[in-house]
Design brief:
Blueprint: H1 12-27, H2 31-40, H3 55-79, H4 93-133, H5 138-155, H6 160-181
Helix pairs in contact: 1-2, 3-4, 4-5, 5-6
Length: 183
């Protein structure tokens, strides 16, 4: 009993390659003709492109960075008002005011950067997620907040339980904000 030859499975590329070989055997006498067939008649495949970030996401992240910085500065300025009462009474009021504003500006910058970085990281996950899902709802806020909470736990080299706490806490906070805003 004779065995039949094994037929290897073919995919689209091998079929297209065979068709090209048949075309090339016809009338290709010069090197230029070969280049033409290879470049012009090669099979065209739909290759998936990597996800491209849209310009609106870049704008959202930039606005979150700037808005978070300004909001953090204002928050720090308001929260540091009580420190003025603790100032030393032996100094003149002008010196006390100068010392207060020096401390306030350094704290304002630190607090503003924290708020700005938090907002930009949150929106760098949330905006592409909205585009991928095609919906603008509270689940995007929860997922973006959870990823941001995990990122901050990772950046602080915290133990694993802080990853869970950070993810749930930040995710629920962002969900509450989204529900409050009416998404």
């Amino acid at each position: 009993m004779e065995k039949s030859p094994v037929k290897l499975p073919t995919n689209d590329w091998t079929e297209e390659h065979r068709k090209l070989q048949a075309l090339m055997l016809d009338d290709l006498s010069t090197k230029r003709d070969w280049k033409y067939v290879i470049l012009k008649k090669r099979p065209q495949f739909d290759t998936p492109l990597p996800y491209e970030v849209s310009w609106s996401c870049v704008q959202h992240v930039t606005m979150a960075l700037i808005g978070g910085y300004v909001m953090g500065c204002i928050f720090s300025l308001v929260m540091n008002m009580g420190d003025q009462a603790i100032a030393e009474s032996s100094l003149s009021s002008r010196t006390q005011t100068i010392i207060y504003f020096r401390k306030s500006t350094s704290l304002m910058h630190k607090q503003g950067m924290s708020f700005g970085i938090f907002g930009s990281i949150l929106f760098s996950y949330q905006c592409p997620l909205e585009q991928l899902r095609g919906r603008k709802d509270a689940l995007n806020g929860f997922i973006g907040g959870a990823i941001t909470g995990c990122y901050f736990a990772f950046s602080r080299r915290a133990p694993f339980r802080n990853y869970i706490t950070g993810a749930l806490g930040t995710g629920l906070l962002m969900t509450a904000f989204d529900l409050l805003l009416g998404f």
